[in-house]
Amino acid sequence: MRLFQRSVAALVLTLPLEAFAQTNHRWITTEPAQIVFGEMVTLTVSGIWRDSCVPQRVSMSGRFHRRLLTLDTGNPGACFFVLTPYRVETSVRFEDLGGVDFGTVRVTLATSRGEVLGEQDLAVQSRSSSAPRISEYRVDGAWYFPQASGSGLVLEHNKDRNVDRVWGMWTNYASDGSPRWHLFQDASWQTPTRLIGKIHRLTSVPFACSGQFPNSDCNFAPQSAAASINVGEFAIDFASDKSAVLVMSQRDGAQLLPGTPVPLSKLE
Length: 268
Description:
single chain, mainly beta, 2 domains, five-stranded mixed β-sheet, 3 helices, 9% helix
């Protein structure tokens, strides 16, 4: 038993602080959950520290869209090498975003000794209801429906400072089994977690192929789309950066007929 305890202690001594930040760190939470430009918000940093000399306070510095959160352990004296929970908070206002009142702020968390623990984006919303909403999560990547392997959604998310644009491609199959795809565009954030936009079906014109097989130049050749037809609208509600629900509504004249909600998971 003593040998086991000494082995654990040796392991803790050799692990860098970044290892605890990545595996045990709960990162930043905010109160209220939605950050509004110019209004007071409490940032809470909590997690598991590598020893008993846990952070006693946290402070923020920086301007515009880059901020630094510094964890300070003070002058604790002797430290015991035991994993220790900690929680510190600070109250701040985001009121200097370079001439605008909304955007994404990149926050870097570091110790007072300069050890960088990680980064996180915080969405700052405008006070104006007519201003664009900023997404709570970064959602780019491949999303799939676990019960139907082979159908899914690919999203491209340009999220930086005052820019927050998303477009995507939904791939599924026609009733005859042939593949088809739909372009998600004209997207906007209705709320920080709800993305809405239009669905366009892409079609091309038939083209001739020789009877040769295999024929890579024919079967895999890029072809221009002949038409992009608006066939409906979509809404995606994100529960996190790894879980979402997609609803696609098909256009029938002036009507929109909503389909069955499709739960999506992020492909890791």
